[in-house]
Amino acid sequence: MTSPVLELRSVDKSFGPIDVLHDISLKMNEGEVLCLLGDNGAGKSTLIKTLCGVHKPTRGSILMDGAEVTFSTPREAQDKGIATVHQFGGTFPLMSIGRSFFVGVEPTKGWGPFKIYDRKKANKIAVEAVQNFGITRVDDGDRLIGGLSGGERQSLAIARAVHFGARVLILDEPTAALGVKQAAHVLRIVNEAKRRGLAVIFITHQVMHAMAVGDHFAVLIRGAIAADFRKGERTREEITDLMAGGETMADLERQIEGYADA
Amino acid sequence: MSRLSIGSLFRRPEAGAFLGMVAVIAFFLIFGGINFLKPSGIASWLNVAANIGIIAIPVGLLMIAGELDISIGSMIPAGSMIVAIMSGHYDFPIWMSIIVVLGFGVVVGFINGFLVVHTAVPSLIVTLGTLFAVAGLVLGLSVLITGTTSVSIKAPDFYKAVFGQFIGGTYQVIILWWFAVTAVYVFYIHYTKYGNWIFAIGGDRESARNAGIPTTKLTIILFILSACSAAFVGMCQALLFNSAQVSAGMSYIFNVIISVVVGGVVLTGGFGSVVGIVFGTITFAVVNQGIYFTSFDRNWSSLIIGVMLLAAVLMNNTFRSMALSYAPKKK
């Protein structure tokens, strides 16, 4: 058994007196999708930010390939291969596909102070990378990001992360703002990333989407891991109940009816 | 094929600015006659355009990056007064004054940028603060040192020739400076990665930072650029007119912002171009000066400028949505 790509060992995170994360231990393996489930405010965002170098853990350690690492900036985490894609794709609506694909790492030609941005090369690579993921509708690198659909933007952002050598892909609610068809699109891309051997962390509160791609599930409640299980070990109802904070959905439904009656 | 390339021209950020410029030039040709495009006529608006244009480009870049700098209004007289007091009232060599002028620009620009990136205060408020602070400082110091608010300066021929003289009796030498800095900006903003970074900051600061762009440093540099440019223009004016006044420059705040917006820069950041800002500046200057060539009363020019500004903002939105909705035709 090789060591996991990324591992958290009893990580705590507190902001002043407020404990946000408590004793989080997780393992992420190559070619696996870890679904991180949790209600709003459960600490999902803080956990992601800790993973991608925005926050440092207050206690506990982060290990990559079995060796302890610390990230002082998001850039450092990125250089080690941890890429984050946010809900809206983390892209720039008024920039062209080619330009936004290469933001921060623009290909250039020429020398010295006259290095110029290589638009043709950037566009070509960007379009190829996206098409490799099966998005054939994107064929012009000069198009603006704002003209793409939500699913295409997500796909572009994922393709970008993979192109730049990501080993761990953190997807922050990629399907939350999407319609059924677009979401299916993104889920297919997630599977493609998995097939290519990336460790994917998929954050969502849509259990259906999680079940469709996940190999490994962790449910976060009030900053702690309430359940950690593999694919097929729990039913959809059980997961939904867990996310609702341990109360069963049936209980919640009763409460709601109670209000309605009163 | 040719229809396609016309379409792509229209999606560029400077498209609206270019059409606006052609429209106002045509307007004043019709109502003002050909004098307006004779050498002396051109000089009248080109001089105005050059003084605004040097400041408009860095301010426009700040707007593309999602910030605003109005402290330029007091940086212009600051530049004038520093050179006039140091080399007019006292006898320091001009090169030393120039270093102090630009150094003061760096300091004020750094303060602006530092406060904007390290506090959550909007740049409008921060630069409003420095606008008044610098104006007060310049007024107070010049009265304290010279006992007056207007200082004369007699520059040696060499410096007059480089920074402040009339070429052929009508064209200010600053026009050449404007052309030169425009070329430099066009190169760096549209053909190197640094321009890409500025657009990315304006598009989404957080994502830009995550992509590894030094957003803090770049924002501070842009503020320094705009403060230095304003101080530079002030200095050139002092050398040109052989005197400096404390109270010149406040109108530049509006003129510069109008030029930038008419030039197609989107107020929320992330969209615009240097060439567009140049077109916007020329458009503004033409309206501002063109009125003298017509039989209209001077007071109407503000009305035209106001209407033009509103039209430009609306047009910018249209062009932006055209650019956004553009998708290649299915083959």
Q: How far apart lie the N and C ends of chain B?
A: 13 Å
| Structural class category of chain A | alpha/beta
Low-pLDDT segments, ≥5 res of chain B: none
Count helical runs of chain A: 9
CATH class of the domain at 6-92 and 166-233 in chain A: Alpha Beta
Number of strands of chain B: 4
Distance between the amino and carboxyl termini of chain A: 57 Å
What does this structure look like?
Chain A is an alpha/beta fold and 262 residues long. Chain A is built from 9 helices and 12 strands. Chain A has a 6-stranded mixed sheet with strand order 6-9-10-3-11-12, with helices on both faces. In chain A, strands 2-1-4-5 form a 4-stranded antiparallel sheet, covered by helices on one side. In chain A, strands 7-8 form a two-stranded antiparallel ribbon. The longest helix of chain A has 16 residues. Chain A is globular, with a radius of gyration of 20 Å. With 331 residues, chain B is mainly α. Chain B has a domain of 226 residues. Chain B has 14 helices and 4 strands. In chain B, the strands form 2 sheets. A two-stranded antiparallel ribbon of chain B has the order 1-4. A two-stranded antiparallel ribbon of chain B has the order 2-3. In chain B, helix 2 packs antiparallel against helix 14 and helix 8 packs across helix 9. At the A-B interface, helix 2 and strand 8 of A face helix 9, helix 10 and helix 14 of B. Chain B: It is a multi-pass membrane protein. Chain B: Keywords: Cell inner membrane, Cell membrane, Membrane, Sugar transport, Transmembrane, Transmembrane helix, Transport. Chain B: GO terms for molecular function: transmembrane transporter activity. Chain B: It is found in: Cell membrane.
